[in-house]
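Key idea: predict the complex, not the pieces.
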Amino acid sequence: MSESITPLRALTLFAVVTVFSPAARSQEPVSFRTDVLPILEERCFDCHQATRTDARGRTKKHKGGLRLDGNAWILRGGDGGDVVVAGKPDDSPLLTRAELDEDDPDHMPDRGDPLTVAQLEVIRRWIASGASFGDWTGAPLDASAASVPVAQAGATVPAGARAARLLALADGLAPLSEAERKALGEAGAHVEDLLGDRRLFRIGFPGRQASIDDAALRVLDRVKEHVVELDLARTPIDDSALDSLARLPRLSRLDLSDTRISAAGLRKLTRAASLRTLVLVGTTLHEDAVGVLAGMPHLETVHLWRSGLGDGELAALRDASPQLRVVGPPSLPPPEAPSAGRDGPRRRR
Ligand code: HEC
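Result:
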């Protein structure tokens, strides 16, 4: 028999859920494992997990090319490309699809009630705060992840491309031992397992940036085959650290924002064998950096906002290296210059 829910009981339930669920209190950090995962498990996994056979022997394949049952799968995205863009909830289909009007054909979940406002808020805050999976990995990627689906209009990165690249990097690499993995944690590193099988990692030092120096970075030497993404933003490191970073054979993305590195230091990174993305926001580079960056063999994207380089230097870099994506300051709407009015240059027709 179904229990009748009186309005008072409903109100109490609502109060309990909203007041006592830790993540519902906006100051509490959101944990993927305790706050987000249960929502996905309950409402999304049915259609977005590994192919399986149901009770009647029918094969159920994940929908939209999207699996949500592993961190690497979530990062891989679906047929339409990325589903989570860290820091940008409004660009993350994992959330925006669930926020759509229930009548919208793209609304998720595809069946049953929409997510509650509290659930949407948890997912929003998780993405806004960086979409970290903490120690959760879930199902590891397998070879099927590398098939590049036909990207739908509007997709920025074909979903399979990142996975294919990671799998190629990991080829032939044995998993990191549990002891080394622990040593990283003890050194204060925040470690994310990118494939879910302890082969490739994203490493950062959130909250401990101020104490990261060359000595602290020595822990990376012990795991150097496994470092793919490294966040050293706002650490006091300088050019001397870059020798050892250049020797990380799989380092693909390096964030040196708000550090004291110079063009001379960057030159050492020319030897980095896999470096594709370099974030240099908030540095004090000067024009020498243009030639150095143009000479980096595998570099695909460089972020140079507030880097000391002006428009002229960014243009010179784009000229010198046309295939390089040079990300400058966000483009602002054109200023309402006084010349835009009557006194301005006449528009030719
Ligand atoms: C009953 C099955 C079902 C459930 C449950 C479900 N989905 Fe989906 N999902 C689909 C189908 C079918 C598609 C592909 C068609 C489409 O894109 O609308 C899809 C596609 C998606 C996509 C787009 C993937 C891409 O790259 O094209 C996202 C994002 C998504 N779902 C998120 C979710 C989230 C988040 C949940 C849980 C809150 C969820 N889905 C629950 C069936 C489901």
